[in-house]
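User: Study the shape:
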Amino acid sequence: MTTHLLEPVTFGELPLRIEDVLALANRQAPTRLQDDAGYRQRIAKGAQFLDSLLDKEGVIYGVTTGYGDSCVVAVPLQHVEALPRHLYTFHGCGLGKLLDAQATRAVLAARLQSLCHGVSGVRVELLERLHAFLEHDILPLIPEEGSVGASGDLTPLSYVAATLSGEREVLFRGERRLAADVHRELGWTPLVLRPKEALALMNGTAVMTGLACLAFARADYLLQLATRITALNVVALQGNPEHFDERLFAAKPHPGQMQVAAWLRKDLAIDAPTAPLHRLQDRYSLRCAPHVLGVLADSLNWLRSFIEIELNSANDNPIIDAEAERVLHGGHFYGGHIAFAMDSLKNLVANVADLLDRQLALLVDERYNHGLPSNLSGAPADRAMINHGFKAVQIGTSAWTAEALKNTMPASVFSRSTECHNQDKVSMGTIAARDAIRVLELTEQVAAATLLAANQGVWLRAQVTDARPLPPALAAMHIELAKDFPPVIEDRALEGELRLCLQRIAAQHWRLHA
């Protein structure tokens, strides 16, 4: 049973934030659909206007014409009712892994929010059923591959349109079920989509936007975690905390960079007496950490802007202006802003992986770790020769970092002309968003490994009789980590602990800086 922790998220005229989508994706907030008479009337007016045009035999793309390059093909009125089903049927060709439950909820939320603008020509009943899918956690099984990100996420969103119509499969109460069976169990009649409704559901950017909301939230937490890991590594490596002096950063005042430096000062209690320095200037992965992490910190505001504007936009085609009685044909399905945001995010995040990987390399190497044992092994001297501590963890971290860096190739520059050269310039926004999620997964693995190694390094330092006490924030983190991750004294397989650490990261378990 879901426990709702937050206030209801309302779909309607008011904008949503990334945090709202995240709350819905994690089943932490209930939902409601705006239902005042004025709003319902405004939504209904769009569908009524379309019906009036059909009565006059007006030409409307995707309603009285074929789709895409087939827009020049007239559809006789006797076939208009059949066209929506054909649209979601022939797009049922997605491949690859299925979106997970969290991502699917984010997609449903993004699509519903777009249609709630009232300029897509859909009925109130469609909004209610889409909202009911979210409310009852009925999740269409959506293959993640097959979208080029212009004409929107047609193929993946066809699975939403089809399941609303009682076709294909859904995840319901933990089981893979036929959508028709779930409708029957709940006493619902599957929707018969009206002219324009399948197009309104499918011809938009909901998949890339839903994924972008999740990616943003993960990156925001990763920024804070990487800062905390850096602080632990400064202690473990007996680095120079004066590299983060407030006056130093006043001379180069990028706000995010200054914020990361401030977090490090707080974590390290920089005003307290420091241990003797091994080096006047630490190596770059410590000294320049605010400069690396600060780029991500400074980018989050504009990334939020791109994502939230897209989230709160009408992004299908055509736009139905019932008030002015106009049908506006355009290209709002083009996901260029999300594509650029996600291509940028994966670059920013991969740089975090590279930073932490370099810090781990210093930790495990006797030449650079200022007196810590090789590979951070905690074994006593008489067993040191057969123990290897974090040796393999570093090898794994090198692999994860390399893969993250490899995946930073921008997807948005790989536009392909497709669909008989009608879609001759496309965004690749969904591929970019999927890439960003993958880079985040890999970087979180790097963060988990480096966190456990940093904690081991801090523990090893504490074994020295004249060791200085940890600053309060780091002491609290060290104690909390020790509950789940005891010191590595005799070699043990660390996979289980790494996976537990990843679960903690996914749940944003540790309260950090924000």
